[in-house]
Automatic annotation (TrEMBL):
Superkingdom: Bacteria
Transmembrane feature ranges: 24-44, 56-75, 87-106, 112-133, 145-166, 172-197, 218-236, 261-277, 289-311, 317-340, 352-368, 374-392
PROSITE patterns to which the protein is assigned, alphabetical: MFS
Record membrane topology: Multi-pass membrane protein
Organism listed in the record: Streptomyces coacervatus
Coiled coil: none
Protein name, as recorded: MFS transporter
Amino acid sequence: MIYPQVARGPTLAAMTDVLRRGRASLAFSFFAQGATFALLVTRIPAIQNRYGVSDALLPVFLAAVPILAGVGSVTTEQLVKRIRPGLLLRCLQPVVLLALLGVGSGEHLAELGIALGAFGLAVGGLDASMNMLGVSLQRSYGRSIMLSFHAAFSLGGIVGASLAWVGAHWQLALWVSYLPVVAVLLPATLVGSRWYVGGGASVDVPDEREGQAQGQSVVFKLLLPLCLVMTFAYIGDSTVSNWSAKYLKDVLGSSEQLSTVPYNVYMVTTLLGRSLGDSGVRRFGAVAVVRLGAVVAALGFAVVAVAPGAWVGMLGFTLLGLGLCVLVPQTFAAAGRLFPHASDAAVARLNVFNYVGFLIGSPLVGALGDAWSYRWAMLVPMVLVLVTLVYARSFAPQSDRYGGGHERPRTADVGRGSNGL
């Protein structure tokens, strides 16, 4: 006798559709944040000129942003115990965009301080909540998708930097450069936020807070290797963003115009590496991809350090983009696997070390370059990136710590086959 099948919860097709929309909307948020951040950091000279910020005072303003971002990330850990990360992200993204517009619209130092303070606090919560949702979605998919979100961030950075170049080339006022971007991205992100998974979706998906209620907590000793990898990765990244142009011009003797190329190449190769990275994780496992990324990044720093001329130096920065690009997304993903029932807290704490690396990297290389030489200074981030090899096993799924290290699908994902996400 055949009994009728009773529907229990959403159908697979409905869940698949919701997750796809959630992935697309979150990717757009990463894109918007990449563009916003690039528009801020690439117009720092224009911001300095607008407000008359002295060279001595500028580092104070620049350091305040990542410090406040760290505070925002820590605060987010507490907020998500009561508010879904998707709702928090929906509220914070407009704040970041409006703070960017505030930076370009003010006239006095106090106004700049308020705008940058709001930007820093909000961006810390924004980065944390975006990656929380990314980790949660990856768990729902049962396969690596985290790199695709950071690829969207890289694409946004390229677009933002290009728009900043246009503004600088045409000598547009900052608010004129920023206003059209904010006018487009703010409503677009608000509309897209309707489909965040974890922010009010009607489909049953894993909710970390239920697991947290069961008592799992983040043990910092276990998270520490990932915190170190995150710090070292951002030391490498900030070295490229802050010193590549100066290194090419002053050390390798390039022209002013050519010295602007390495960072653009770095961003493009970062986008390329992240676009292909998820397929590499699925095929070879996170441990292998992280090890390869660390080796390629270290090779890039070595090439930069010994480069006889500008073109070889640009080859080194190209390798840096391909190597460093996989480390940060996989570090967030590994934290989610390490603490599956407390991933929100793990991501928020790990995200703080994003800003620690950013704060350390540029001053460290600058001090070593002035006291020693910029060629030798490039070997310091090289050694730090190689330390990632020591902690590579931390990136393996829990069940595979002593096995192959490949992603293992969740039970709910078995049987999706060609109708996968």
